Amino acid sequence: MASSYILFAIFLWSSLGVVVRLSGVAVHTLIFYSIIVSLIVQGIMLLQSNYRKKIPPFKMLRYPLILGVLSLINTFTYFYAFKYTTIANAVLTHYTAPVIVAFLAPIFLNERITKKITIVIIIASAGLWIMLNGFSFSDSHTAGLIAGLISGLAYAVIIIFVRFYAKDFKPLVLSFFSNTMIAILLAPFIRDFPSHALWSFIVMGIVHSTIAPILYFKGLRSVTANRAAVLGYLEPVSAIIFSMLLLNELPGRNSFIGGAMIIFSGYLTLKNGEKV
Question: Is the pLDDT score of 17 beyond 50?
Fold first, then answer.
């Protein structure tokens, strides 16, 4: 069940590129107003007595606030990549994260790297690079590709951080206070309200900044960091499908071959998952 939470969150996040591209607003503006919508929704939920009791002492709030800083770095660079390269290039560079997690998890979480998880990472990584070879990397894409790689590093750190501290917080509480930090950091840079993009703020605020992170944090309370990272490899496949259907960004043969390998790695991860 925990893996299902993560998979559903990943599926929801895979539509981000399409929303970012169609919104037509600056990255920081898009993040800020979607976070505001999310905070309104989450704040209403936190007003319920059963959630108020789960809010930790003030000294413990430093952890979700640190998560907010990491999340802003991850989200900003990821959205920037969507703006300045193809959606496929953005998500594929972003998903260098599982390989980074594979090296960090034994150091910070004492998670043993099993033979099976090693094979899964190799298959998924090979599929990722096969997909990458199906896309061109012209100078006009350089900024987007660099941003995608930075977001991948930030994403890896977030997985480790949340896996370490998730057990101490309710997912809603963790999401609310990390989003609060993002809003505080971005507020000085907001100058206007682009009303034409209101739909994107609502969609992202509810779907991508509330439902998805709550599901993801809930799943990470039980799923190992390595396994969660490998499950994340399914996002590039879903994101490319969304870009095909809604933006007419057609991938080549390599994308289908690499995508099949990634899906297979996800299957191996889910099969007998307690042993991974």
Answer: yes
